[in-house]
Amino acid sequence: MSSMVVIGTGSALPERILANTDLEKMVDTSDEWITTRTGIKTRHIASKGDETSKLGSRAARKALSMSGLVAEDLDMIIVATITSEISMPSCACLVQKELKATNAFALDLNAACSGFLYSLDLAEKYIKFDPHLKILVIGAETLSTRVNWQDRNTCVLFGDGAGACIVTGTDQERGMLASNLYSDGSLYKLLYMDSAPSMNKDLIRPGNDGSYIKMAGRDVFKHAVRCMDDAISSVLDQTGVSIEDVSLIIPHQANIRILKSLVDRLGVPLEKFYINVYKYGNTSAASIPIALDEANRQGKIQAEEYLLLCAFGGGFTWGAALFRW
Ligand code: UT7
């Protein structure tokens, strides 16, 4: 029985950096509040040319280069995003055009901050069906276009960026061992965004409260910790791998305090977590693949080691996946 392996990773961040000290001049906040409550110090913000599909394509080119494949080798492109620059066609079709991946079919997947995990899970189902498939999985977001820059409760939290990986099948005993996904739509009002995106800036009216991300932060925080803990436990139970055997955990990067609470519940050292929230903020579906690419390029994941991914986001959606690298 073949399983799905990652053969290339890549990431891309906009050049422009917004520091907490910049935000102090925009809303009633402080570097001290943002740092202690979230762990975030800076975030990257998209400029013209950094549209979601462009960031996704830049990350994809790096992943392709690492994998030794070219765009024409791709059979499928999945883009996890909630912030494509247009509603239709999909961001994935724009990526396909940008890469000239003429042999791939392309689709978007909306599972908010869990989108990359959901996309990996979907890719794995296709690869189980045909292990020769080469699939590009991207998480890409430009959340800066959807936050209310006058709302200090949300505007300090998010950032822009993209991460990508190329996956295919293997007969070796490694790759994705298990993935468990969950949703609870009954709680959607705790974290949502109710407008359609648009490249047409005239349609994004200032003061139009409907078009921005809204979050009941404290409630989301509690659910995030409990749900990720449960998802991790269930994926470990299913595979018989213990948390001590896991070399690296790459969680969705939303808040350092969420990660510290998770560390306490799991009883593992914080060093087992790959953390970069301090420099990028919450990049939603892009956060795991950006972190995965960084950890991979820094040699933090060695062959045959166990790697755990976990996410929580709007929907609610959440889940965990275990890999033997
Ligand atoms: O990626 C999807 C999942 N998202 C998450 O996981 C986010 C989960 N939630 C969180 O990370 C945290 O709840 C937040 C960072 C959003 C907020 O932290 P908190 O410790 O839960 O703060 P709070 O919302 O309870 O607010 C505490 C106080 C309030 O003032 P009062 O009512 O106590 O006077 C807020 O008005 O902090 C105030 N506040 C701020 N003060 C300075 C809220 N935002 C700011 C700000 N600067 N930026």
Structural summary, described in words:
- This protein is α/β, with parallel strands linked by helices.
- The protein folds into 2 domains: 3-172, 3-Layer(aba) Sandwich (Peroxisomal Thiolase, Chain A, domain 1); 176-324, Peroxisomal Thiolase, Chain A, domain 1 (3-Layer(aba) Sandwich), CATH 3.40.47.
- It contains 10 helices and 13 strands.
- Strands 1-7-6-4-5 form a 5-stranded mixed beta sheet, sandwiched between helices. Strands 8-13-12-11 form a 4-stranded mixed beta sheet, with helices on both faces. It has a two-stranded antiparallel sheet with strand order 2-3.
- α4 links the parallel β4 and β5 (105-109).
- The chain is globular and about 55 Å long.
- The two termini are 17 Å apart.
- The mean pLDDT is 94.
- Bound molecules: oxa(dethia)-CoA.
- Oxa(dethia)-CoA is lined by residues 29, 33-34, 37-38, 113, 152-153, 156-157, 217-218, 220-221, 224, 254-255, 258, 282, 312-313.
